[in-house]
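Possible regression after last week's pipeline update?

I re-ran a chain I had predicted before the update to compare outputs. Posting the input and the new output here so someone can diff against the archived version. Not blocking, just want to make sure nothing changed silently.
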Amino acid sequence: MQKYPKTKEEKQVDVIFGTKVEDPFRWLESNDETVLAWIDEQNKYAKSVLDNCSQREKIKDLLGAEYSNDTVYAPRKRGDKLFLRMRTSGEEQDSIYMEENGVKTKLLSPLGIAGDAKAMISGYVASRDGKLILFGISKAGNDKAELRVFDVDKRELLADKISEEYYPHQIFFSANSDGFWYTRHADGVSKNEVKLHERIYFHKIGTNESEDKVFFGDNLDKEDRVGMSLSSCGEYVVINVEKKSAGIELVEMFITKLSDKNRNFVPVYKSDDVKTSAVIHKDYLYIRTDRILKILLSDVLRGGETRKQEIIHPEEGCIEKMIVLSDSIIILKLENAVSVLAVYDLDGVFKKTIPIGEASSVIGISYEVGSNNCYFIVMSYTESSTIYKYDSSAELLSVYLASKRNLKEYDIETRQEWAVSPDGTRIPIFVTCDKNVKLDGNNPMWVYGYGGFGTNIKPEFKKEIIPFLMSGGIYVEACIRGGGEFGKDWHLSGTKEKKMNVFNDFIASIEYLHSRKYSSPSKTAICGWSNGGLLVSYLTITRPELFAVGINIAPVTDMIRFHLYPDSGRLWISEFGSSENEEQFKNLINYSPYHNSKPNSKYPAVMFVVSDKDDRVNPAHTFKMLAKLQADSIGDKPIIMRYEKGAGHGGAIATSLKIEQWADVLAFVFEELGMKYN
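New output (post-update):
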């Protein structure tokens, strides 16, 4: 039996709809000296465990070699300039580069701006003429980022800035580059609601942020989210409002002409598909839901009922993204969780399919509405990024940057399997392993799941998994319900009172893999991040015999109080429900991991990975769950927390720190599964 650091338990009992709810570790929700002292003790204990993981330094060396390769994202063509976000060998962070005549020049680096390797560029947009860059700089790699403006020709930062305290996010520049739109919270909100009350503001270049006015959103509810797109002519904007205030998700769409001084926002469309989006090109509005609709812009501006022409409705798969170029529409869709790129003309007549390879994903498409070309990234579990350029006018596909890593050289391949959930639903599973793997149940296996918020799990190259694969491991990702791999219904069938489908799908996937002798419980690790951490936590307390080690990264674990924390919690009510609703409370209390761990339980080895500046999922979820598992466990397997300072929800950001983080995680998995580094 493990000897854990002492954690005090307090008698804290709430009565919710007549039910007593114990919360003995609520004191860990605070950020006082007592909690910091507790964290220090947990860090010491974790270090004592990790110091005994014999494979760590070898794993770290291989990770260092993998991360020495350049990382390049899809370029963005603006005016006569090409901009890229990339990290070259030896750099701690991504920087923004400009390419001219094949020569790349670094324009912006987090270290140069913030003076700290833990800072990161959270995102950027360039003006249409390519003369200005609007970017976010986050000091801790979290959601809190200051907006700044960079003059490309002068190579200097302008005085314009939007304070990080507003939680701003860049949208885009006006067509003539005299200002930009961005989202931020409204004035006068409480400290606990800084990620709510979102509005769209406009900032005029050369002015102080105090002069910025609300462009849209004064009458929105606090949970509502807003987005915006600019027409190819630069005269109109389409605004998306994601309605979350009623505990359900709806999208309402509006359009306005920028020259309209009365700011008349004309209602365009309503949808219960949160992936709904729209763009304006030439004389038409194109709307993407599970199909593509085309509406004459003049009809929309008149208001009232409009004739919506359905021009594209794929017979197979679900639409993930719509790209409208000068003469073409490109649809990125998923078929059995694999990307397909299909090209149509502007009336929806099919032209061609762009070949991208088997079991691959298209990620990071970059384009400008009405232009002739786009850039996109293709990757798979076995092959790193290849960046392509597609010229729609010439119907020409070319390689901009070729992949530098292909694990097929080591006979590693990806195959797709299908599990069956208890209700008969078929669940696609991607299995990456040696093509000659022996199905004898003795292989180490790592199973990742998420299952929420309509997020798609699809083939992606992951540097951090390479040491596991190279040492004979099998890496698995399960496309369970709650995600968006098969559209809106697949997502909704894993939400609220149907959340149990998510857990059942993941359990069925693991059991199927065991039945096929890919691995066995003593050789299985499971992993989840954020909402996926809820998945890992639930399996830890309900099916501990199914696996040997759980990697639980920034998890959601307290389903009764998640909406009360000063993070993004209230935005999740449409996904999980809320303990403020009696029927939803009954559902939540039945599976909330923190509230369902039982004393005298034998749990598998667990590593929680959490960061102190995580402002998306409060670290208290980890602290409380860790304390509860340690208090209830009578097993001999370690339950530890890896605590990263100066980082957000994504964990360690600087490359050197990311290597340290994953070396710890992998060493822990290797130790608990009895693996030897190869």
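Follow-up from reviewer: compared with the archived run. The chain has 13 helices and 39 strands. Marking as no regression found.
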